[in-house]
Amino acid sequence: MIRSSAKAASERAKRVPTPRGTAKPDASRHSIRVTSRRTGIELDTLRMWERRYGFPKPERSEGGSRVYSDADVESLKLISRALELGHRPGEVVGKPRTELMKLVAATSEGLPTMSGPLATVDSLVAAIGRDDIVALRAELRQAAVVLGAKRFVMDIAQPIALRVGELWAEGKLEVRHEHMLSECLSSQLRVLMSAYEEREGAARVLLATLPNERHGLGLEMIEVYLAVSQITPRLLGVDTPAEQIVKAARSHAVHAVGLLVTGASDLKATAKRVQWMLAELPRRVPIWVGGGAAAQLELEDDAVRVIATWTDLDAAIGALRTGGR
Ligand code: B12
């Protein structure tokens, strides 16, 4: 097909350069794959909505690929949540973000209607820096309602924990800020967990940390993520002796054991304990290791699975469902 030159020129003008060579990739522009992964909306659905509703209307890279903005991704997350709550695509695709937020908050049964812009990692950091615990709690609650449990964990809880960790390491926030965030996040995650009931027949995963590892917040995030993914989490908690974890794994007849390991752990001692657990656990019970230092343990055993990303966790969950490792 030959395009008219005016049309071709206007399309070229809309195209944005694709970062190449030494140019830094632009974190606020996303490919269709990334957009689909972040919003849970299938690639074909994104293309179909573009044709049918004129939204989202991504720019094009030099190579002609779709390039979505942060605003597109945020709106799509809200649309995805609205669909989960029972709205039809025709009612929600293409609606302004403020309207989508109101709609989602209003349809989330039993929860108070929220107003104001959706919390972001920046707005949460600002509330933490002001020691404004009231705003922090309110923003976390609103984000949980609007985004739903899984997106809350992926888009808010983990990123804000990591950011606050960085700001603390740079001396821009203090220990009390980190503690305040940990407590508020933990409370919000408890509320989200209370909505889940045990599923009969679902695979069970035991979650714990080994001695001297006190980072339990990550375990609570994983607990919610597993529950949403229809896996039954059994949260044992932090600072647990290896021998107790093994006993619990047997007594709860779990299908996997999940350990969280950060750089605050003694990695040599941890690697030894994991080796010991591998020998003691019933056969075919894999150990999933997540947390910032998981990869540094260098455990070469096919029963050990390092989980560094949400995609890794999805793959581990998938393997559990199909009876593999
Ligand atoms: C909150 C926090 C605390 C809180 C913990 C409260 C709580 N209830 O958990 C408190 C204040 C207690 C604390 C204490 C300390 N902390 Co601290 N803490 C953090 C912080 C900010 C967030 C951790 C978190 O919740 N992450 C959320 C998880 C979900 O994120 P993630 O690891 O990216 O998760 C991905 C995967 O790893 C995977 N995953 C994660 N966990 C799990 C678990 C399982 C089972 C599976 C399957 C997958 C999985 O899922 C995600 C998928 O994308 C981190 C910063 C950071 N970068 O992590 C520092 C951090 C871990 N802490 C650090 C330090 C130094 C300490 C202290 C030593 C400080 C001190 N001087 O006292 C103590 C150590 C305490 C101890 N003995 O354990 C350092 C570790 C440095 C290092 N060498 O790596 C960090 C990295 C901060 C920093 N920037 O320096 N901390």
Any overview of this molecule?
Helix 12 (267-280) links the parallel strand 7 and strand 8 (287-290). The protein has helices at residues 5-14, 32-39, 43-53, 70-84, 89-92, 97-107, 121-129, 133-169, 175-193, 217-228, 242-251, 267-280, 310-321, and strands at residues 15-16, 29-30, 59-61, 66-69, 204-208, 232-237, 256-260, 287-290, 304-307. It has a 5-stranded parallel beta sheet, sandwiched between helices. It has a 4-stranded mixed beta sheet with strand order 1-3-4-2. The protein contains 13 helices and 9 strands. The longest helix is centred in the middle third of the chain and has 37 residues, at 133-169. The chain folds into 3 domains: 28-107, Multidrug-efflux Transporter Regulator, Chain: A, Domain 2 (Orthogonal Bundle), CATH 1.10.1660.10; 121-193, Methyltransferase, Methionine Synthase (B12-binding Domains), Chain A, domain 1, CATH 1.10.1240.10; 204-321, Cobalamin-binding domain (Rossmann fold), CATH 3.40.50. The protein is globular. By secondary structure, it is α/β, with parallel strands linked by helices. Mean pLDDT is 88; it is low at 1-24. Helix 9 (175-193) runs parallel beside helix 10. The structure holds cobalamin.
| Structural category | alpha/beta
Strand-and-helix sequence, N→C? HEEHHEEHHHHHHEHEHEHEEH
Structure ligands = cobalamin
Q: State the CATH class of the largest domain.
A: Alpha Beta
Provide the CATH architecture of the largest domain. Answer: 3-Layer(aba) Sandwich
Kindly report how far apart the N and C termini lie: 50 Å
Q: Tell me the count of domains.
A: 3
How are strands sequenced across the largest beta sheet?
A: 6-5-7-8-9
Q: What is the gyration radius calculated from CA atoms?
A: 22 Å
Continuous helix count? 13
Principal-axes shape call: globular
CATH topology of the largest domain: Rossmann fold
Strand content: 5-15%
